[in-house]
Write a structure and sequence with these properties.
Elements lengths: L2 E2 L14 H10 L4 E7 L19 H14 L5 E8 L6 H8 L6 E4 L20 H16 L5 E2 L11 H18 L3 E4 H5 L7 H10 L3 E4 L11 H13 L15
Parallel strand pairs: 1-2, 2-3, 3-4, 4-5, 6-7
Helix pairs in contact: 4-5, 5-7
Length: 256
C-alpha cells in the first residue's frame, strides 16, 4: 500500500494520536502519500451541535499543523489536507463557504446519516425499508454530482436487511453513476479490521461486475491503523474474492 487518503485526528473526539505519529507510521510502512481527512466541521441551525466532528474553530489549527508538517516532511512523503464530509443539502453551501478560506486539497464523502444528522437516521441502523435505501442512494448520487468529492468512503455503510433484489437495483444505480462521473468507491479497512457490517460482499461483487474504480482507505483513528500489514492483506483478499480491481496510484484530487 502506497497511498491512503482516509486518516483522522483527535479533533473528531473518537480518535487518538498526534499527526506526527500518523506520519511516522506511514513512513515506516512505505506510504508515499498520506491524506488527512478528519470529520469536517458543519454549521447547523438552532442549538444542535455535532459531537463526532471537529468544531469550526478548530479548522485553523488543523490546517496550520498539517501545512507545517507537509513542509517538514517534503521529499519523504506527500501530505494532503482533506476532510471527510457528509452531503446535507440544506447546509452544504454554508459548509463550502466555511472551508473556502482554507488550503483543503480534497473532500471524501462519508455519509453517516440520511437527510440531515439531527433529523435523519444513521446509515448503520439496520432496516428493511426500501424507501430509506432509495433515499440514501439518491443522496449519495446527488453528492457526487456536485463535483466536490474525490471519492465515496464506505459507500456500503447503509445497513439494509430487506429484499436482496431491491438492494442490488439501488446499489447498481450508485455504482453506475459513480463510474460515469469517475468517482472511486472506497473499500473501507476499518470495517474489515473491526468486523463491522461493511464491507458488504453483495455490494462489492456488483462493483466488480460493473467495473467502477475502487480504492482502499485505512480510515485510521489511531496511528497503528495506518497501512497495518495484516489489515492490508485481508482487504486485498476481500477485493480479489469480489473481483474488484484496486487503484494503486495517487488519485487526481477534486478541490472543493
Amino acid at each position: 500500500m502506497k497511498v491512503n487518503y482516509h486518516t483522522h485526528t483527535v479533533r473528531c473526539r473518537h480518535a487518538s494520536g498526534s499527526e506526527r505519529e500518523y506520519i511516522e507510521t506511514a513512513l515506516a510502512r512505505g506510504l508515499t502519500t498520506l491524506g488527512f481527512s478528519d470529520h469536517s466541521p458543519y454549521v447547523f441551525e438552532g442549538s444542535y451541535y455535532s459531537g463526532f466532528r471537529m468544531k469550526p474553530e478548530e479548522l485553523d489549527d488543523y490546517c496550520a499543523i498539517l501545512t507545517a508538517l507537509r513542509e517538514e516532511y517534503k521529499g519523504r512523503i506527500d501530505i494532503k489536507i482533506g476532510l471527510e464530509a457528509e452531503y446535507y443539502p440544506r447546509f452544504f453551501d454554508k459548509f463550502l463557504a466555511l472551508i473556502k478560506p482554507y488550503p483543503i486539497d480534497y473532500l471524501i464523502l462519508g455519509q453517516h446519516f440520511s437527510d440531515n444528522e439531527f433529523d435523519g437516521r444513521g446509515a448503520g441502523e439496520a432496516t428493511s425499508d426500501s424507501a430509506r435505501l432509495t433515499n440514501f442512494v439518491s443522496q449519495l448520487i446527488a453528492a457526487i454530482e456536485t463535483g466536490k468529492f474525490t471519492y465515496i468512503a464506505h459507500p456500503d455503510m447503509f445497513n439494509f436487511k430487506g429484499d436482496i433484489n431491491v438492494y442490488k437495483r439501488e446499489i447498481s444505480r450508485l455504482i453506475v453513476r459513480a463510474k460515469g462521473l469517475g468517482v472511486p468507491l472506497e473499500l473501507n479497512m476499518l470495517g474489515i479490521r473491526d468486523h463491522r457490517h461493511y464491507p458488504n460482499v453483495e455490494f462489492w461483487k456488483l462493483v466488480g461486475e460493473l467495473g467502477c474504480e475502487a480504492v482502499i482507505g485505512c480510515d485510521a483513528h489511531e496511528p497503528q491503523s495506518v497501512a497495518e500489514p495484516d489489515n492490508i492483506a485481508e482487504t486485498r483478499d476481500f477485493a480479489a474474492r469480489c473481483g474488484v480491481t484496486l487503484v494503486e496510484t495517487p488519485l487526481v484530487l477534486r478541490k472543493p
